[in-house]
UniProtKB/TrEMBL annotation:
GO terms for molecular function: 4-hydroxy-4-methyl-2-oxoglutarate aldolase activity; metal ion binding; oxaloacetate decarboxylase activity. Keywords: Magnesium, Metal-binding. It comes from Thermothielavioides terrestris (strain ATCC 38088 / NRRL 8126) (Thielavia terrestris). This is Uncharacterized protein. Pfam families: RraA-like. CDD domains: RraA_family. The lineage of its organism: Eukaryota, Fungi, Dikarya, Ascomycota, Pezizomycotina. Substrate binds at residues 104-107, 126. Its cofactor is Mg(2+). Mg(2+) binds at residue 127.
Amino acid sequence: MAAASVPDSHDPIVRALQEYTTCDVADALVKLEVYHGGFLPGITLWSPRRQDGPTKIVGPAYTVQYAPAHDGRPKWPSHYIDSVPPGAVVFVTCSPPTSNALYGGLMSTRAKASGAVGSVIDGRFRDVQEQRDLDYPVFARDVGTTPPGPLFKVVAVNEPVTVDNDGQDVVIHPGDYLVGDANGVVVLPKGLAERALPLMAKQVEADAKMAAEIRKGMTFTEASKRFRS
């Protein structure tokens, strides 16, 4: 099964990020004093394969917020999936969390037809085999069977959402860059991207040199001093 790659993009940041892993992004963010590294804990790759293969997604976030049906905010007047822009990563969350599945196969069918590069579900999703048959990338916390309605409704689209990382709030703004691979999913704030990319390049180069010398017998400590200091 082929990797689900990012289509050609006019955004040079998206093109550049395709060269790096989620770990590279997190390392750069830590250097910029974003100490959670943009990591969204508990969210892993389920489709096209479960934590396997070369699947990677990179794109600007298109955010969707679910809330309980009794929430005072009005229900979003149309279906969010019909407004997904090409090249986007769909990010769906619910507050408070629920065991209901927030996302299903028809959503991926529409997202893929719209040119989305993948979906990240801060919760459960369903129709696993349908997602895989689409060869469409889905990252999520877990799987489920029960749809969100009538207990939950979409209350906001393309507004900031928050994911907890061990007590640290990771805020995802619309347009921030979401990167997902077998390591998990990270968010790179749009305003930090141009500062983070050179740090990624420097670290990847240093790590490649370290790996080469370690294979020849150099200790990690010595290699680290030589190439990372």
